[in-house]
Amino acid sequence: LEIQKQAYQSEADLYGDANIPPLTETLEEAERAWQSSVILKASIAGEIVGSVRAHLNGTICEIGSLSVAPEHQKRGIGTGLGILGGAVFFVVIAWNILIPIIGLALKDIFG
Length: 111
Known about the structure:
Layout lengths: L1 H14 L5 H4 L2 H8 L3 E7 L2 E11 L2 E9 L8 H34 L1
Antiparallel strand pairs: 1-2, 2-3
């Protein structure tokens, strides 16, 4: 949550309002969200510099939180995390759709 709070502080400053969910989220709220999410992290030299939290809602991948430490922003880290967060669920959805089809095709071929 530390990186999330650092990352969103500039947005709060821009709007003059620190009462935005990324800044007010408690550890307990984050832990509840983590239970139904995939969390990916970006690290440089062993230091976590960003993360994305995503979950699947039907066939839609929803990004719940994407944060990059301010000193590492504007380097494509957030873009990469967002793409990878969506890609994880694309693979899951594709797997669930294709495996039954492939299984049926193999059954037809091999009996």
